[in-house]
Amino acid sequence: MLLREVGAVEDGRLVEDGDALPAPAAHEVALRVLACGVCHTDLHLVEGEVAAALPRVPGHQVVARVESLGAEVEGVSVGDRVGVGWLAWTCGACPSCASGRENLCERARFTGRDVDGGYADEMLADAHFVYPLPASFSDVEAAPLLCAGIIGYRALKLSEVQPGERLGLFGFGASAHLAIQVARSWGCETYVFTRSEAHRRLARELGALWAGGAEDDPGVALHAAVSFAPAGWLVPTALARLARGGTLAVNAVHASDIPSFPYELLYWERTVRSIANFTREDATEFLALAAEIGLRIEVDEHALRDANEALVRLKRGEVQGAAVLVP
Asked: What is the pTM of this model?
């Protein structure tokens, strides 16, 4: 499903394309796609809010089977089930890479933006950026782990929430419904802010102590919070819920402008920080943790040819959990 020209997803911007896959380069693996998650970043790419070199095949939450190997590939075998995430390649030499922050590499390439992704029957990937997947998850269950899960895990880490503390989650889509389970495994009290009553019900089922709207008062101050929604107006709203010294992590690759707000909301050493991509270390840690705690993954399954419809449902907030495409 190829994106040739950006625009409203309601106009069916993704079109079927049948070009043959080239042979893998020396460092690449050729993959047969088994499932691919649908991410808000895909929606931003299709609608032009995040720039991509076109034409491009989106999709960066890919579960696949290895079909062939490049000449220099080691550590991966034909037949392996692997995952591909957002991070497609890093230079390994810049100050960010050298300091263990490859997610900030200025030359980084991203799956579905700079290289073709998983809205397809087959794809290529750099062998250094594929991950073995826990056998306990089916193909469609494993797909959302590869971005929604990993980036949510990184957001929790950078929020600096500690076991037993009160955590606020603003927005409750694919990433938040996995992050809440990680936070609960750490013994955190979780408070969910979302406009959807269906999402509030799911949050309560997954252990939220309280669920309501962004403007509602949970009656307690939060030690940390993560905003998953691409809505800048949530930043001052979330800050107003933070205790002194609390951190708000903004988990969005694109968001509307943040409105001005009183300095008092930031005072008392509150922190606002963005979450940018993830590292391979994050991926390895999270996938092991997901298997250990037995994450429950809510999946809204669609055929690959219905990718446009899946994106429309995502845009309208109609997806419960995570949307996943199956070829």
From this structure: 0.95
